[in-house]
User: Fold this.
Amino acid sequence: MMRRALLLAAALAAGCAAGSLRGTGDLGVVIERASGRVLLVETTGRSVLGEVAGLGDLSHASVVFSRDARYAYVFGRDGGLTKVDLLRGRIERRVIQSGNAIGGAISQDGRLIAVANYSPGGIRIFDAQTLEPLSEVPSTWGDGAQRAKVVGIADAPGERFVFSLFEAGEIWIVDATDARHPRVTRLANAGKQPYDGLVTPDGRHYIAGLFGEDGLALVDLWHPEAGVRRILSGYGRGAEPLPVFKMPHLRGWAVAGRYAFLPAIGRHEVLVVDTVSWSEVGRVAVQGQPVFVVAEPGGRRVWVNFAFPKNGVVQVIDVPSLKIVRELAPGPAVMHLEFTPRGEQAWISSRDGDAVVVYDARTFAELARLPAEKPSGIFLTSRAAMTGF
Assistant:
């Protein structure tokens, strides 16, 4: 740990002494979940630049980036919101804003950070520059005395945040144009126990996965007045679901051309959906329960990791044929995968292998194996330019 910190300080000092500058387009962070740290990485030379410690409970951490890709906002499970300066390699600001948080989002214009909270339920909105709290939207439901857990938060065009209420079965759209007085649109009857959600890359649709029943909930953000539309209802009808060892993540949902690929809860399948009709057009049998289903930036292939017990494998699906064309073994307990912006590299974390493994996405050759202590999420700064990330 000390060696990494010294290397980062030396690199920064050398850069300043030489009067040189560096961009942030090839930077990223890797969550070291057991240690409350993030590694600072760069993808050009595939190396670790240093680390930043003191980020609290990162057991379910997520990250968004400022629009200039200089700052990473880290959302911790302990309610911590931390602003990390990637160029200086240090914590810029940190607040504990709740007792239990589950992610966050940055507004379209980069001015606002919204944090989704389990306890107390709701979202809190902060100034992205100072982390000053601006407003709170409690997730009250039923008789008004209860608060639901907020899940699946994502940014949407028009300075909006969209999220789901787990116990209430609702989807809310918050217009934060006036951040101190946000306006809330509540959409009921989303389905039983929405557990995660995403905004499609074009920013038009919000989709929530349902844990309590087969199917998904779809909202057209161009026409929210139309309410929630159910899609893929009963996709597992007639089959007994398997025990769910780890919840799949829709944020890693793959959109490749006209088709979307998503994990089926409690099944060894990846569902293929037409994004025009929002109907199922195929399934791909895989070796375990999928967790993340991630498309290469060019959309030619989709990479899938899995829940315990078969979680040391990544399978690669060829989109035109819907066939598995490669199986990789990065190490035990694969947690996450991320592509570089143009898709030439795949970065994969192996928690129990204490490593981040970098593959050539074309040849599948291993390019690097970087030491990391119990790594989980990998977040590259290219996300700064993506809606919903």
Observations:
- The mean pLDDT is 91.
- The radius of gyration is 20 Å.
- Residues 317 and 324 are 4 Å apart (CA to CA).
- Helices lie at 2-17.
